Amino acid sequence: MARQLYTARLEKKVCLSESAQCYHFDFVIDEIEKFELEPGQFASMTAPDPTGKQQTRAYSLAAATNKNHFELCINRVEGGFFSNYLANLPIGATVQMHGPHGHFVLNTPVTDSFLVATGTGIAPMRAMTQWLFPENGPDRSNGKEISLFFGTRYPTELYYHEYFTELEKKHANFHYTTTVSRAGEEFTGNRGYVQKYISERVEERAKQLGITLPMTPLPDDTPASELKFDIYAYICGLNNMVSSVRDALTGYGWHKKQVIFERYD
Q: Which residue from 10, 23, 231, 265 has the fewest beta carbons nearer than 10 Å?
């Protein structure tokens, strides 16, 4: 079955980081009234390259449903066609797309959750938190503890930092942890990789629950009601980080159905 193609018009473009050449895009689909998506899904953008060959790239949606808009967070890739094509688009230009697609979405009902991201993997986490904690509308988190762990190379790559910082101030059940792996000596925040801070939180939670780690692995068909550790993890980023965090959590005895991931390399 042919996919429904839409024409997306670029309404706004903001440079989030000059050094990383990362941009936030706000597109509008004028032909529809509402672009329905599940936070965590992606859109597929399509355009002809200089040889005339049609290219398609998938990008995580960086915002929850907002009328007929959708938003992306993309950085330039040296030698890459599509990231540079989008970065060079002028306001008002159009591009073809289809979607939303994907199964990297929040479990229902909402559980205590770890949202783990590096780089532009923060895009679906922004969409998820906008849905959980909407500015106008009921809180959908149901009081569950939502912890975001965001790792970058440099402080200038902490995309949407002000938004997440303000969200933490407004909601006692939202926790925001950042860490930087290549900061200069003047940097006073957390250093290293996200795995360290996730492990600390897991061990702290295990003590609260009276659980000895590592837990005995459970069979694949174990129902959710019988899972000993009551946190789900949603991980998005480059393969090495995703694999490392996934292995660390399953090494603690987390059931694999509690570790949901999307990797983009």
A: 265
User: Measured between alpha carbons, how far is 173 from 181 in angstroms, rounded to an integer?
Assistant: 27
> Does position 161 have pLDDT exceeding 60, yes or no?
yes
Number of other residues whose CB lies within 10 A of the CB of residue 212: 9
State the virtual CA torsion across 171, 37, 94, 264 in degrees, nearest 10.
80
How many structural domains compose the chain? 2
In a domain, residue 107? The reply is no
- Position of tokens 């659980």? 211
Nearest residue to 23 via CA among 90, 102, 96, 98: 90
- CATH classification at residue 83: 2.40.30.10
**Does residue 61 lie in a domain region?**
yes
CB-CB contact of 119 with 154 (8 Å)? no
* Predicted local distance difference test score (pLDDT) of residue 29: 98
Q: Give pLDDT tens digits for 225-264.
A: 777 777 999 999 999 999 999 999 999 989 888 999 999 8
Closest CA to 161 of 251, 151, 240: 151
pLDDT in tens, 37-63: 999 999 999 999 999 999 999 999 999
Pairing outcome for strands 231-237 and 174-180: unpaired
Contact call for residues 227 and 258 (beta carbons, < 8 A):
yes
Extract the tokens encoding 33. Answer: 């009234």
**pTM more than 0.90:** yes
Domain that holds residue 248: 112-263
